[in-house]
UniProtKB/TrEMBL annotation, chains A, B:
GO cellular component: cytoplasm
KW Signal (keyword) present: yes
E.C. numbers: 5.4.99.5
Protein name as catalogued: chorismate mutase
Source organism (scientific name): Panicum hallii
Signal peptide as annotated in the record: 1-27
Source organism, top-level taxon: Eukaryota
GO MF, one example: chorismate mutase activity
């Protein structure tokens, strides 16, 4: 895949800073942050189940297989998936999706105007740190690690629908993981003195330790695994709901619950904490 | 909303007819059709739950509120939602989504080429009847009837994400309802003599009667309602799964199960049968 620049809306920084100073804490608390993250889990499980409907559809991911060659694909050495996501994100950018700092595109855009009705978003992040994101790591993790665990081998030709469902997975994973910025902002506000000294000392390890709660992480991992068993089961109109708790192989579920556990254990939680640390290191800029 | 033309790929009819004659029944049976429709229910419930995350966001649906006026919106007298869906469908069309007859766009497109890797789709529908769809009725039902039941009043400014979730709902409802073409094809093949005489007599009422099984429809409606209770519940990591069966108000669920029941009872099932009848009336063309 081609290298992608980090999204850095530098031109907006002055305006954001002003908005931030005016209302730095509107609505943001440990409770609202936790509620948001918990609700995102459902969206993540739904999107993984939807992607798992389709086979791997490998031609969509290899530049060699790109269409009739009339388009820009061969010149860019890009896959169908990458071109589709670029074009879809461009439409969404024009539609104002990235006016909300909760949303970060995988490809950077400069659009001269947005079609969307105007809206005055609350700016809850510290402007100089708001750009922090790990979309490159998410992109690579999704296509190289997660997708082969999600999708069965096969090719049914439904490349657009398949890659559209990849985009849905990528978008919610990006929003969930990069929400670490909001988590860090809330934690910083809750103990400014401790965080300030660690940030000034650039003490990455102590920051990571302070942000880590293994007990809480364990609750989250068990909960997402349970969501995968409940949302991925087969439901009949009359029979008992099959919770699938006795099934350890995962074969009766639309997406293997152990894969969802692994997603959180190995990637979502560590990457979120990486975002938190990076955000904090820019929190006093 | 502006009127939209029915998608009629007339130029392709000859090629489709040839492909149909070569393999008229590959893989299509009452079992595969039922399996497809049952699986679509999960996708429908997921997409409704996702739309219900966002408030109504009324400015997205009213041409008066359209952006900065620099775009084509005011000239077309279209809403932000309509423009967003048009542009998204154009990208998906270029990406080959509508090469599969299972997918029908809400707006007609003529794209000179597709970016997608080539794939030789099986043509299971009778070409002269394959164009049948009720997308106009689905569009109107979704925005005028269903959406006000799904989304709470409010405006959080996330118009692009909201309308993107509308598009996901519209796409799966369109695919599910217009799959009536496949249902009708299977039923026609199962009893060609009876159907042929009714089709030749243009006996719409008897066709509708022959296609109706109230017992089967009742199973489907109860099953989709149950899926809404299971997929829309709140899951904790340890506590028992709250199935919500004792809750009749629907307030504890992410989308009210009775709304999902009503969706199937009043719109999905009747519109599907309308598609079946229209398809059959063109089955001997």
């Amino acid at each position: 895949m081609a290298a992608r620049a980090i999204y850095a809306p530098l031109v907006c920084t002055a305006a954001l800073l002003l908005a931030f100073v005016v209302s730095p804490s509107a609505g943001l608390s440990l409770d609202t942050v936790r509620e948001f993250l918990t609700r995102e889990e459902d969206t993540i499980v739904f999107s993984l189940i939807e992607r798992a409907r389709y086979p791997l559809n490998r031609p969509a991911y290899d530049p060699i297989h790109l269409g009739d060659g009339a388009g820009p694909g061969r010149r860019l050495n890009a896959s169908f998936a990458e071109l589709f996501i670029r074009e879809s994100e461009a439409v969404q950018s024009k539609a104002g999706r990235y006016q909300s700092l909760q949303e970060i595109p995988f490809f950077a855009y400069r659009v001269p105007f947005t079609l969307a009705p105007p809206y005055n978003f609350t700016r809850e992040l510290y402007p100089a740190a708001a750009f922090v994101n790990v979309n490159d790591a998410i992109w690579s993790m999704y296509f190289n690690e997660l997708l082969p665990l999600l999708a069965k081998n096969g090719d049914d030709g439904n490349y657009a629908v398949t890659v559209d469902s990849d985009l849905a997975c990528l978008q919610v994973l990006s929003r969930r993981i990069n929400y670490g910025r909001y988590v860090a902002e809330v934690k910083f506000r809750g103990d400014q003195q401790t965080y300030t000294s660690l940030i000034q000392a650039k003490d990455r390890d102590s920051l990571m330790k302070l942000l880590t709660s293994e007990a809480q992480e364990d609750v989250v991992k068990r909960r997402i695994e349970k969501k995968a068993t409940v949302f991925g089961q087969s439901i009949t109109s009359d029979g008992p709901i099959k919770t699938g708790v006795n099934n350890s192989s995962g074969t009766n579920f639309k997406v293997d619950p152990s894969v969802v556990y692994k997603l959180y254990d190995q990637w979502v939680i560590p990457l979120t904490k990486q975002v938190e640390v990076e955000y904090l290191l820019h929190r006093l800029d």
